[in-house]
Amino acid sequence: MTQQPFVSTEIATQPDLWRQVSDGFAQYGGSLPKPGRRVAAVGCGTSWFMAMAYAALREDLGQGETDAFAGSEFPAGRAYDAIVVISRSGTTTEVLDLIRATDVPTIAITATVDSPIVELADHTIMLDFADEQSVVQTRFATTTLALLRASLGEDLSKAAADAQTALTIDVDDLAKLEQVTYIGTRWTVGLAHEAALKQREAASAWTEAYPAMDYRHGPIAIAQPGRGVWVFGEPPAGLLDDVNATGATIVHHADLDPMASLVVAQRVAVAKSLALGLNPDQPRSLSRSVILD
């Protein structure tokens, strides 16, 4: 019998982990920025996309101006009250360089005890219970976002219940789509980018991601039968009609919390990878952390 990939087991733990950080917010998130503070959120790859989601959601909830940056693109010298740095490994070169170079207080969220980021950051939130054996990130990223959402006052009980439902949805037909474009609005744009990244990483698949309103400004040209358009959150008026006219498959889990729809997307990426005979735990050209000389 073929061993189940680590990433499949890790995906299945997400509902419980979301509940854990939501219920224990005081334990894990007491050092996160308070309302009214001007904040930057930073990460690389998946962590950057979680930072994007947090930044948009924090602003939309009226808790303060919040920007998101890839680690290499942080604007040195810009004034912030705090920088939230997300790094599963705690060893990523760009984020460590950023922390060393800034005088702004830094709050690191990581999964790795004794990693360099723990020593460098002013505060550390340790989510080692959400760490992963797979190179492909799933549960650390979403558990981090669940914690950040809880810090903004959101109730994660529905999201966790929806994630449990997401584990039961049949993904076989979705995994057969030739190409998928993921779209979202505001905080779900980050989720769209993350969903696209999962298929690229795990299955070497052609995927794209865009803000939903921008999708009609060119990207819709590739939509056709056999391809998909995956919508996170509420789609703009008329967009689904435009996609229907192309013959592409629309994927829209309207009744699920958008993070739960991301869980479905993770499962699709794994299913597609396995169907192609690939190893979703160890994608080609990737490692757990990018460490530069």
Summarize the structure in words.
The chain is of the alpha/beta class. It has 2 domains: 6-154, 3-Layer(aba) Sandwich (Rossmann fold); 169-275, Glucose-6-phosphate isomerase like protein, domain 1 (Rossmann fold, 3-Layer(aba) Sandwich). It contains 12 helices and 9 strands. It has helices spanning 6-12, 14-23, 25-29, 46-60, 93-101, 116-120, 139-151, 157-166, 172-175, 187-203, 239-246, 258-275, and strands at residues 39-43, 66-70, 82-86, 106-110, 123-126, 179-184, 207-211, 227-231, 249-252. The strands form 2 sheets. It has a 5-stranded parallel sheet, with helices on both faces. The chain has a 4-stranded parallel sheet with strand order 7-6-8-9, with helices on both faces. Helix 4 (46-60) packs parallel to helix 7 (139-151) and helix 4 packs antiparallel against helix 10. The radius of gyration is 18 Å and the shape is globular. It comes from Kribbella sindirgiensis. GO terms for molecular function: carbohydrate derivative binding. InterPro entries: GlmS/AgaS_SIS, SIS_dom, SIS_dom_sf. Residues 29-166 form the SIS domain. This is SIS domain-containing protein.
